[in-house]
Amino acid sequence: MNYHSTRNSGISVSSAQAISQGISKEGGLFVPEKLPHFLYSDLLELQHCSYTERAVRILSAFLSDFTAEEITECVKSAYTGGKFDQDMPAPISYLQNGKMNMYLLELWHGPTCAFKDMALQLLPHLLTKSLKKIQSSKTALILVATSGDTGKAALEGFKDVDGTRIQVFYPENGVSPMQKRQMNTQEGSNVSVCAIEGNFDDAQTGVKKIFTNPEISRLLEQNGIMFSSANSINWGRLLPQIVYYFSAYCDLMANGEIDYEGEKVNIVVPTGNFGNILAAYYAKKMGLPVKKLICASNANNVLTDFLNTGVYDRNRDFHTTISPSMDILVSSNLERLLYDLTGNNSEKITGWMNELSSSGRYKVDEDILSQIHELFYAGFCDDAATKETIKEIYQTENYLCDTHTAVAVNVYHQYAEAEQDEETPTIIVSTASPYKFADSVLNAVSSEYRADASEFEKVQELSAVTGTPIPTPIAELEAKKVRFDTICSKDKMGEAVLKTAGIKYTV
Ligand SMILES: *Cc1c(COP(=O)(O)O)cnc(C)c1O
């Protein structure tokens, strides 16, 4: 199977090339030329398989230039050996008291307690094998600008992986105290973390400049190093996400929750960059019986408006919310959906994306919009409603969820009412442990909440109040040594990268 670029359908590369490169030269994203199809008989078989077996089956259908042994090796390194609680990467939580058929797909049992582990535990293995396949003997230097979850998940995924180094930049005052501590205490011999004076955009812009700086590229080249990306536009990050939608459906089959062949489920996804919900869309196209894809946003509701009206308009205020991983105004992966819905029309996509970067706005055609309405339901909720939902689901179901998951639950309720659909079994994607956002979650469920308590006091308090266990990776953080405390100015980021690369350099 080869991969095309969304901005030039004439481009055709292997999966190893697509994963190594991350993004196509003209700025397009790599997409598979054709989606493999899974039949009901395949699902019947897969329902008796482990998560790793399911992952191998689905990945093999996409990575035709990898051998079965290579894929198995990658998948086992990612998902077994205690990286995830009880080696169960994507368990389903069944709610007891609900009228509605809600199933919480918990994707936060990995080393950083957020769903990005699902892809970032696997990507390093896919990437190092891809580099070998394209006969690159270079060390891959991964550069990441993060607003929180991605940085930590990438550090954990790449730590001590042969042939790679990783440098993470985060805005000094733009991540939560827990996220900062997670990154600053990172272990591993090939990792580097640096706070920068500025906001997330400064970090992101700085990284883009380093990627395209000819002097830095020359120095790296001389030293046998190449840049690579762990960003969610990399196909190697999207592919692992398709697996858990199939896996969840198979678990529901195995547990007798699916009553007949082809019974459809709804899937609700708290959405930021449109990566996670795009993977659900691909799963549907590959034959998974899905009724509606429900896209849940916070106050940054640019996607809600787009999916409802067909107009994408990023010219609006940016809101800092209690679900920060969804605070985003340009959802990169939407480009892949549009490419698919236009029947691979890369001229059209290029036009829209150019409009987006010049005026911040584009409008899709009526026929695209009607396809979108057929596939998706979109809604959003603000911080107050998010907290209200955390409290309600805790009180009625005794289920503690994080802020991002609560946005999904809230929007699901909106959907069920608007579309009069309480019967369809519904998978709600739970993307982070409530302990990762202990401050907001505690505030929502406890009257004892003290804003001035330390982050770890809030974690303890949340556990005491709710009787739920603190995830080990978070419990262990308090005692960990801080390894990185450098703060650098925006214009010193390049030097930090060279230092990480082990290159002596004087200006
Ligand atoms: C990244 C993230 C999201 C958004 O996922 P996208 O793939 O960017 O849509 C939602 N919740 C959490 C906790 C995240 O870390």
Automatic annotation (TrEMBL):
Organism: Caproiciproducens faecalis
Keywords of this entry: Amino-acid biosynthesis, Lyase, Pyridoxal phosphate, Threonine biosynthesis
Pathway field: Amino-acid biosynthesis; L-threonine biosynthesis; L-threonine from L-aspartate: step 5/5
Requisite cofactors: pyridoxal 5'-phosphate
InterPro entries, sorted: Ser/Thr_deHydtase_PyrdxlP-BS (IPR000634), Thr_synth_N (IPR029144), Thr_synth_N_sf (IPR037158), Thr_synthase-like (IPR004450), TrpB-like_PALP (IPR001926), TrpB-like_PALP_sf (IPR036052)
Similarity comment: Belongs to the threonine synthase family.
Enzymatic class: lyase
Catalytic activity: O-phospho-L-homoserine + H2O = L-threonine + phosphate
Annotated ranges, domain Threonine synthase N-terminal: 2-79
UniProt-listed Pfam families: PALP, Thr_synth_N
Biological classification of the source: Bacteria, Bacillati, Bacillota, Clostridia, Eubacteriales
Name by which UniProt lists this protein: Threonine synthase
Domain of life: Bacteria
Record's function text: Catalyzes the gamma-elimination of phosphate from L-phosphohomoserine and the beta-addition of water to produce L-threonine.
Enzyme Commission code: 4.2.3.1
PANTHER family associated with the record: THREONINE SYNTHASE-LIKE 1
Transport as UniProt keyword: no
